[in-house]
């Protein structure tokens, strides 16, 4: 009996700290759907799995994208950019459904959502109002960019 009580005390104490021992998980990011306008939310199926795992499946879209601010990205800002943001699109072809978290490598870090994968590189507008594609998945994957907005 004493061993059982000791075991319960150890389990209760270990669940109180911030590390994850299978007892407590800290997912401090805001509701993912707040990144979308109301029109985009109707085609978004968002679920939180066990712990800090997520899935966001998007129904048929002509083209989905996330936007990030240059200042909140590990990607260097081109000198000829017109805006303070860039876009990352899902693909250049329409798709039936896709999981945003897998496709864009979305993670929760320090209370914010970040992308770490760039399936079609990034897109931005130049000072001459020309839309430019920059980088490849191989060059950009692994760099973190805080998500500012998401849309379809």
UniProtKB/TrEMBL annotation:
InterPro entries: TRA-1_regulated (IPR003326). Keywords: Signal. This is C-type lectin domain-containing protein. It comes from the Eukaryota. Pfam families: TRA-1_regulated. It comes from Caenorhabditis brenneri. Residues 1-15 form the signal peptide.
